Amino acid sequence: MVFDELQTAVAKLESEIANGPIVPAVTPPEIRRHLERYDFARPLPLDDVVTDVETMLRSWQVHVTHPRYFGLFNPSVTAASVVGDTLTAMYNPQLATWRTSPAANEIERHTLGWLTRKFGLPADTSASFTSGGAEANLSAVTVALTRRFPAYGTGGARRLPASPTLYLTAESHHSFGKIAHLTGIGREAIRLVATDARLTMDVADLARRVAEDRRDGFAPFMVVGTAGTTGAGAIDPLPELGRFCAAEDLWFHVDAAWGGAAIVSPRLRGHLDGIAAADSITCDAHKWFSVPMAAGMFFCRHPESVAETFRAETSYMPGKTAGPVVDPYTTSVQWSRRFIGLKLFVALAHHGEAGYVAMIEEQARLGDVLRASLARAGWRLVNTTPLPVVCFTRDGLDTGAFLAALYRRQIAWMSEVRLAGGAPVLRACVTSVRTSESDIDWVVREMSELPC
Ligand SMILES: Cc1ncc(COP(=O)(O)O)c(C=O)c1O
Questions:
Q1: CA of 254 to the centre of ligand 1 (A)
Q2: Among positive and negative, which fits the CA dihedral 33, 34, 37, 43?
Q3: What atom in ligand 1 is closest to the CA of residue 137?
């Protein structure tokens, strides 16, 4: 069976990557010179092309599926999810409408329904797969604007009687700056609320900022709580934010792009308490659900506002499919749409919920192992989170020089981050189902040997 072979190939690749380098050393001219052989003037045997492409990918990329990749939230992918994504490419169903791809649409609906229930959202929640978290956040802001300001959809932001304002923290994802730009409310619409010592949103400062803005004639419309910030894994106080938004008639969006997967874990889900009150949620399958990019998800408890935001009619489009179904082109900005959800469906079906709980809880445990190991080795931990992101430093550390040495010696991939505008610190996140305790022990030992 071809899929047995694919799984064997994934397993073989996994072990080869684990035993090879993590970080490439290559320059743009080197790659461009190599590509000059592809002038596309004559056909080449597929075997030769694939062999060459694999050599390029093997040599010239940061291997995010390496067990010692402690990076931004790009996970190692499970073999089942690769099989799912391969099937998507082979059948290439068009998910714009229900009637062109009934099976694919119902598989997505079924999968999203499972997560909708986990989040505690109502059964009629609108849920869609997106290209990623940035698109899901864009959907959230656009739908929130459409609901709050009926004139926004046709007249645009310039027709509104007061300028809309949006509340988040400096630790929130950078996509909101672009989104403010794209939606026409402008980047100045973003209000950066203060954070406390744990880098979570200070609700008293939020209340102050909203009151001030109302007094000054602005139109506050949305608060973004992050459940697992990109830099430090901080979780904003979701229950308090939910209550505040309800009292102030503000849209409550939870950006749980990475941390949202914790909802399946009995041990971790308590940290997401309050998420059920969200008007909308972003959660990425291509982060902690360990499936290949690109797979985000957007959940919204106001299906009628989603429909109003993404309504479209032209003569070349089929009319809305009749019956109890939703055409995906009416719930997102996309028209032609890949069967994004299959990789998550296949992986969930194969590993089962218990398999996912085990994967997620093991990575959270390894985060604790990493924290303890770094502390024992004399590093200073600078963030607090139940999620496996560890930020750390030591006196006199030059993060740039340290990371360069770490990469040169192929010890691990980590990154640097500034928290609350402070000095750069190191950031290591367990994102791989392949990372083990011995990887962590080895990396921390090797890091102690580095000169800077
Ligand atoms: C908290 C958070 N939100 C949104 C995003 C954007 O997600 P994507 O990269 O899938 O667009 C990220 C990405 O790391 C993130 O960490």
A1: 12
A2: negative
A3: 4
